[in-house]
Amino acid sequence: MINLKVNEILNIPITGGRLYLLSLFERLVRGLTWRTAQVAQLALIIVMAITVTNVIIRIPYRPIGGAVELVEMSGAVLLGLGVAYTALMKGHIMVGLLVDKFSPRVQGLIDLVVSGIALIFSYILAREILFFAYNRMMAGYYTGHLEVPIAPSIYLVAFGIIMFAMVILLDLIKAVRTVAQGSDSQ
Hints:
There is one protein chain. 71% of the residues lie in helices and 0% in strands. By secondary structure, it is mostly helical. The protein has one domain (18-181). Helix 2 (21-58) runs antiparallel to helix 3 (67-88), helix 3 runs parallel beside helix 5 and helix 4 runs antiparallel to helix 5 (151-181).
């Protein structure tokens, strides 16, 4: 019978000075999340450029055809891909007034429960968005004016939610370590 402690499972050292498995996963999540944030920033630049251009040329000429469609799709991509980076940087609003008074182990236990619930919900959300995108792709849905397929932007939103789930999983693993070790091991 193999008897391993939780911290032995989560801190598997790889010999030869290589990274631990957890820090390798954390580097992967941080790298992918940073790339998704860069795509979200590009979507923000597109939204700003379309909006400003549309406002400037509206008076002397006609507004840009399909500007609303492009802004809507870019906005969805912006929000979908930006949420993981925001979660990684702890940019969301958190209520820690009561929780901060507890010991690190109890805080880790609360983080464990909250992260577990959030992981379940983000899994369901990502799965449903992927199904929705697939159905829209199979049905051949396009935007009304420009006739741009909408499925790719929906897939990008789903990928952003999957990245968000990976950030939550990382937080969950850190919470397990905190509960197992009794101190803040982040």
